[in-house]
Write a structure and sequence with these properties.
Blueprint lengths: L8 E4 L8 E6 L5 E5 L12 H4 L15 E3 L5 E3 L2 H19 L4 E5 L5 H15 L4 E3 L6 H11 L9 H5 L2 E5 L3 H4 L1 H14 L2 E5 L12 E3 L6 H14 L5 H7 E2 L1 H11 L3 H8 L3 H13 L3 E5 L1 H4 L4 H14 L9 E4 L6 H7 L14 H11 L12 H9 L5 E5 L3 H4 L3 H8 L4 E6 L13 E4 L8 E4 L4 E5 L12 H11 L11 H13 L18 H5 L4 E2 L26 E2 L18 E6 L15 H6 L4 E4 L1 H6 L7 E5 L4 E8 L7 E5 L32 E7 L1
Parallel strand pairs: 6-7, 6-14, 8-9, 8-12, 9-10, 11-20, 12-13, 14-15, 15-16, 21-25, 22-24
Antiparallel strand pairs: 1-2, 2-3, 4-5, 4-16, 17-18, 18-19, 21-26, 22-25, 23-24, 23-26
This protein binds iron/sulfur cluster.
The site of iron/sulfur cluster has 13 residues, from α1 and α7.
Length: about 700
């Protein structure tokens, strides 16, 4: 008979935190046809430009296909896996023997699958005994994690994407969702078109998101806390709070209100500090307080701030004060940046977390240690990304293993990061690609890791939904999945029993069992329904929103409508907020605030989207956006070249005049690197001022100068 048509494999998109379901139909020649999965609740069949072009990014031309070792002469030689794994294990042993376990660290990524992330954490925090595991999620949503943990007692997004379909008001704060979460933005627009929902965008910059909405508040950079403290005062003064919800489920309201009055004593004070008109602020406050079904969603404009945690808390306070949380169509909503930033949070990918949302309280250390039968548990929080790189620079960290991320581009003060990486006694990188800026720092070992389409595991999207990523291509050449590489190194370090997993299904089943271990509803992250899952059931796993405890296997769309916060007394805690201020102010020498972010059709450091001609066509080269008046003032012309400089570094970019820019600010994309455009690595000019709670660096307002070159 005729040949069977190739079967489509259900998987998820490797880019943003929307976590769209993808149908991939392999063509038998290493490629695949890509379509949106109509059955996936995140996207219901839709894909954005990036997801739709995934098929163009599957070639092997730029891939690293076998282990490589740096030789004495500085070149790289191909070696076998045995030699590579022995070299990593021996290198780690040698550094631990000389400098102790605290001299070794892993720097991980929201691109890893949950199973990879889980094993890396288990190895470092339970068996090597160092707490120094951090991740590029530190640059992404660490402030949301810290804000939610402070206020809710747990890192829990209360709502669901469905709330964006049923809200009557959607407020987007510091989010260019039209470009960065396109499929969700389309759901919001559809709600507006079909149900008349209003959309308000709060952002210093005019973006694609603010083009066709109901209100745009172009507030001054760094003034978000002021705006939302003012909203809390507005709600209180007009008797619009939910006294019953506050009385039953919240503590610290009176103190938080006093604090909000100090920050925002009057509408005029909010207007002065935000640079907005009092009338537009009043209109926004009236709309917010008169609309019961309101979702306030935010992204990196809130998170990537030295006051990001307070900004998050200021938003959470307004929702708690009105009981607008966990009910259909309302709640605070963090739009996570990366495909698996949340999965990483779940397993302890952040240096201040342990596993299954447990922290470093003595009882939690003890619980995880007993579950893992761990010989050498880390006893206190590890170094967060920026501090980790400072410790590398200072020689306190001597061995670093980077997996699935490109810190020499993405971290603040990228030039210093790149130089510091070159000073390590042991520098290992697990990568898909053969060349990037982190590899240019000359790791001792380069390990060829499986890419999207080749690897199996799970990811968690912004609405707490765990979905499978499934392989639809075979592993090329000597490429291996990250979990396997980690387990092999762990076995060589003497931990064979604890790292004997047969594959991702077994790792996930263990992770699920840990989440339920001595939990009894005390911790938010519980996927006990999946404890001991068989490989067959894992392969058939349907997308599910955690918590999914044993008694509720279908998961949980919403939390906190009736309280039940994961604090000791079950109440949310309103917290005092610092007076809003930028980490560093502009000066005469550095008069412009440099803001960095994403473009519509590219992802991170271009290693995948750069392969697609269609995606590169949208924006073929990097540029710096500046208001035309500012350009005139600094003698810049459209398409001329300009140097952006400050104490940290400098970059040279083409000038793009944009009347949508706020005066006194610059915007440059994060995507290009020394490998793709020699002087365009914007991370070199980003300061490393961090939020005191989250350790997340301020990447939206670095004082800088600009001049024509
Ligand atoms: Fe969906 Fe985001 Fe992928 Fe676009 S990039 S298809 S919105 S997950």
């Amino acid at each position: 008979g005729p040949p069977m048509p190739p079967a489509a494999i259900r998987t998820t998109c490797p880019y943003c935190g929307v976590g769209c379901g993808v149908l991939a139909t392999p063509d038998g020649r290493g490629g695949a046809a890509i379509a949106g999965d109509p059955s996936h609740p995140a996207n219901l069949g839709r894909l954005c430009s990036k997801g739709a072009a995934l098929g163009e990014t599957l070639g092997l031309g730029s891939r690293v296909l076998h282990p490589l070792r740096r030789t004495a002469s500085g070149s790289y030689e191909r070696i076998g896996w045995e030699a590579a794994l022995d070299a990593v294990a021996d290198g780690l042993k040698s550094v631990i023997a000389t400098h102790g376990p605290d001299a070794v660290a892993f720097y991980l990524s929201g691109q890893l699958l949950t199973e990879d992330y889980y094993l890396a954490n288990k190895l470092m925090k339970g068996f090597i005994g160092s707490p120094h595991v951090d991740t590029n999620s530190r640059l992404c949503m660490a402030s949301t994690v810290a804000g939610q943990r402070r206020v809710f007692g747990s890192d829990t997004v209360p709502g669901s994407y469905e709330d964006l379909d049923s809200a009557d008001l959607i407020v987007l704060v510091g989010s260019n969702a039209a470009w960065c979460h396109p499929v969700l933005f389309r759901r919001m627009q559809q709600n507006r078109a079909q149900r008349g929902a209003r959309i308000v965008v709060i952002d210093p910059r005019a973006t694609a998101t603010s083009e066709d909405v109901d209100q745009v508040l172009r507030l001054a950079p760094g003034s978000d806390t002021l705006l939302f403290a003012g909203l809390l005062v507005h709600l209180a003064d007009r008797g619009l709070t939910d006294a019953d919800y506050l009385a039953r489920h919240v503590e610290g309201y009176e103190a938080a209100l006093t604090n909000a009055r100090e920050i925002a004593p009057s509408l005029e004070a909010v207007a002065r500090g935000t640079g907005l008109d009092a009338t537009e602020i009043a209109a926004f406050y009236a709309l917010w307080s008169e609309t019961p079904a309101v979702v306030t969603a935010w992204s990196q404009g809130v998170n990537q701030s030295a006051q990001g945690t307070d900004k998050v808390a200021a938003i959470l306070h307004c929702h708690l004060a009105t009981g607008r949380i966990g009910k259909p169509g309302c709640g605070p909503f963090s739009l996570t940046g990366q495909p698996n930033a949340m999965g990483g949070r779940e397993v302890g990918g952040l240096a201040n977390m342990l596993a299954a949302h447990m922290g470093y309280a003595p009882t939690e250390i003890d619980r995880v240690q007993r579950f893992w039968k761990a010989p050498r548990m880390a006893q206190s929080e590890g170094l967060k990304a920026v501090a980790m790189m400072e410790a590398v620079e200072a020689g306190r960290i001597r061995a670093l293993w980077v997996m699935a991320t490109n810190p020499a581009v993405s971290l603040p003060r990228a030039d210093r990061v790149r130089a510091a990486l070159g000073s390590l006694d042991l520098f290992v990188v697990s990568e898909n690609v053969l060349s990037n800026d982190t590899l240019a720092a000359r790791p001792h070992l380069i390990l060829p890791a499986a890419a999207w389409g080749e690897k199996d595991g799970t990811v968690t999207n912004s609405e707490r939904r765990i979905s499978r990523q499934r392989a639809f291509l075979s592993l090329p050449s000597e490429v291996k999945p990250d979990w396997w590489i980690i387990a092999q190194v762990a076995q060589r370090l003497g931990f064979a029993d604890a790292f004997a997993h047969a594959g991702p299904a077994a790792i996930y089943a263990e992770h699920a069992a840990l989440s339920a271990f001595e939990n009894e509803g005390r911790r938010d992250f519980d996927i006990g329904a999946h404890a001991g899952l068989t490989k067959h059931a894992y392969d058939a796993l349907q997308p599910v929103q955690w918590p999914a405890p044993a008694a509720r296997p279908l998961g949980t769309p919403r939390l906190f409508a009736e309280g039940g916060f994961f604090t000791a007394n079950g109440r949310a805690r309103m917290v005092p907020l610092a007076a809003p201020a930028l980490a560093s102010a502009a000066s005469e020498a550095l008069p412009l605030l440099l803001n960095t972010g994403r473009l519509r059709d590219h992802w991170h450091t271009l290693t995948r989207t750069g392969l697609s001609p269609r995606l590169s066509a949208h924006c073929a080269e990097p540029s710096v956006q500046i208001h035309p008046e500012d350009a005139r003032r600094y003698g810049l012309t459209e398409a001329g070249f300009a140097r952006i400089a400050n104490d940290h570094g400098s970059v040279v970019l083409k000038v793009a005049l944009d009347p949508g820019m706020t005066r006194g600010s610059l915007f440059a994309p994060i995507h290009w690197s020394a490998e793709t455009a020699s002087h365009a690595r914007i991370g070199a000019a980003v300061q490393a001022m961090c939020d005191p709670w989250s350790g997340q660096p301020e990447m939206k307002a670095t004082p800088s100068s600009i001049e024509q070159v």
